[in-house]
Here is the input.
Amino acid sequence: MKSRIFHTQSEEETVALGVKLAAELPAKVVVLLIGNLGAGKTTLAKGIVEGLGAAHPDEVSSPTFTLIHEYGAGVYHIDLYRLDRADQVAGIGLDEILERQAVVLIEWGERFPELMPVERVEIRLRAAAGGDAREISVLVHR
Ligand code: ADP
Ligand code: MG
Here is the structure.
């Protein structure tokens, strides 16, 4: 997967981008979804999960309170927003999940860089002030 920048103008376009990116992901990968609240991290995750054939986008919701959602075999969606400390993250079993042959999507993972594998995909989402436009950059760290 190459490093690139995309632009979307709607929620639907971001879901479609997720579907497209899913086709390029290896079977075992960690994807950090990075951006402010409302940037579109969960929306992009919906598309990735759909593209992987793991669930319908309507079944994908923010794991803000549940912390981890598992879709089908080998797709995890994690949100670390509500966790403050590394030992709390360890408590949800992140280590074990990262060892699995799985696509692991992590919102707010950049808050715990020491817990993330060096080999990972970082997707940064930025909203233009007030509007629906999003700039979405995909960076692969090998
Ligand atoms: P996050 O997980 O980053 O907090 P969400 O994906 O939950 O963000 O929410 C993004 C919000 O922004 C949704 O309400 C969505 O409808 C809206 N939105 C507007 N334009 C876009 C776009 N281009 N891409 C993604 N979401 C968008
Ligand atoms: Mg979210």
